[in-house]
Design brief:
Blueprint lengths: L9 H4 L2 H6 L10 E8 L6 E3 L2 E8 H13 L4 E7 L18 H12 L4 E6 L21 H18 L3 E4 L6 H11 L6 E8 L6 H6 L20 H14 L3 E5 L5 H10 L4 E5 L1 H12 L5 H15 L3 E4 L2 H7 L1
Parallel strand pairs: 1-3, 1-4, 1-10, 4-5, 5-6, 6-7, 7-8, 8-9, 9-10
Antiparallel strand pairs: 2-3
Bound molecules: ligand PBG.
Ligand PBG binds next to helix 7.
Length: 327
């Protein structure tokens, strides 16, 4: 004896062919950006202990590696330099040197590898000894406008070196406008801006700070510029400002803990929305897998799919290589 009910959603789910026809969200390698760490010191890749399968790559080897990733369908890379400690100082002046690793590498990569897009992370933390994303004034606070001035100039160096997009990850006020003006003024009208618009002051950046060695003995408190994880409306405000200031792509970061923000940004704007599945999101899945508690690949794919379903058009992820083999 059956119930007489009209709505049986299982009718479709229970039929494998129909079930596959009602799929609403699909991942594509076209959506993925692989963050890549570079080193200037070693002649072999340096593993990052808190990020399994992720390395700092010497420039000489990264070219081959990018060719290999390209055959998997990955075409866009976000470049993060590991700056030698001897080149770091209070002001992060290395960011203004045209021969800095981040610029040199792109010139070399672009000279050899065709049909890729490269994103420059624009921030001072790889270059400062204190690990902050800006320069400090006498009272120890990050000086907004001085920092923005440096980033606006560094954006031009990045464009000149061959980056297709610059990605300010610093969360200073007004930087999108100043960077856009600076790029336009220098004739780099084709260089776009991926803005880390809603970047939260998150505990999930830990492994990344190992990767670029921006950790100091003291905890680096970025809550004076990054968003409080408790604040949704403030995130909306930051997204609105970057939209007005001329960003080409708006980013939410981290990704999975902030799916509400991604979903809202997708509804509110016509710009593409990016989400950054950060180092800690990557490492926590790996850690549970290494404990034998979770399955690595299915959890990674579920996480990426959830980020896409929430509304991300573009996903920055350290799982890009593994995911591209599973898509
Ligand atoms: C800093 C920057 C960070 C990340 C990207 N750019 C860390 C931070 O704000 O301290 C984090 C990326 C990750 O955790 O994977 N400019």
């Amino acid at each position: 004896m059956n119930f007489e009910i009209n709505n049986r959603p299982r009718r479709l789910r229970d039929h494998p062919i129909l079930n596959s026809m009602i799929v609403e969200t699909a991942l594509s390698t076209d959506d993925l950006v692989l963050p890549v760490f570079l080193t200037e010191e070693e002649d072999s890749p340096v593993p990052i202990p808190s990020m399994p399968e992720i390395f700092r790559w010497p420039v000489s080897i990264i070219i081959e590696k990018i060719e290999e990733w390209k055959t998997l369908g990955i075409k866009c890379f976000a470049i993060f330099p590991h700056v030698a400690p001897s080149k770091k100082n209070e002001m992060g002046t290395e960011i203004m040197s045209p021969s800095a690793l981040a610029y040199r590498a792109v010139r070399e990569i672009k000279a050899t590898v065709k049909d890729i897009a490269l994103i420059a992370d624009l921030a001072l933390d790889p270059y400062t000894i204190h690990g902050h994303d800006g320069i400090l004034s006498n009272d120890g606070r990050v000086d907004n406008d001085k920092t923005v001035e440096i980033l606006a100039k560094a954006a031009v160096l990045a464009a000149e070196a061959g980056y297709d997009l610059v990605a300010p990850s610093d969360m200073m006020d007004g930087r999108i406008l100043k960077i856009r003006q600076s790029l336009e003024g220098a004739g780099h009208v084709r260089t776009g801006i991926v803005s880390y618009s809603a970047k939260f002051s998150s505990s999930y950046y830990g492994p990344f700070r190992d990767a670029i060695d921006s950790k100091t003995d003291m905890f680096v408190d970025k809550s004076g510029y990054q968003l409080n994880p408790a604040n949704f409306r403030e995130a909306q405000r930051e997204l609105a400002l970057d939209h007005l200031e001329g960003a080409d792509i708006l980013m939410v970061k981290p990704a999975e803990p902030y799916l509400d923000v991604i979903r809202d940004a997708k509804r509110a704007y016509k710009l593409p929305i990016a989400a950054y599945q950060v180092s800690g999101e990557y490492s926590r899945i790996w850690a549970a897998h290494l404990q034998g508690w979770l399955d690595l690949e299915s959890c990674a794919m579920e996480s990426l799919l959830s980020i896409k379903r929430a509304g991300a058009d573009i996903i920055f992820t350290y799982f890009a290589e593994r995911a591209s083999k599973l898509i």
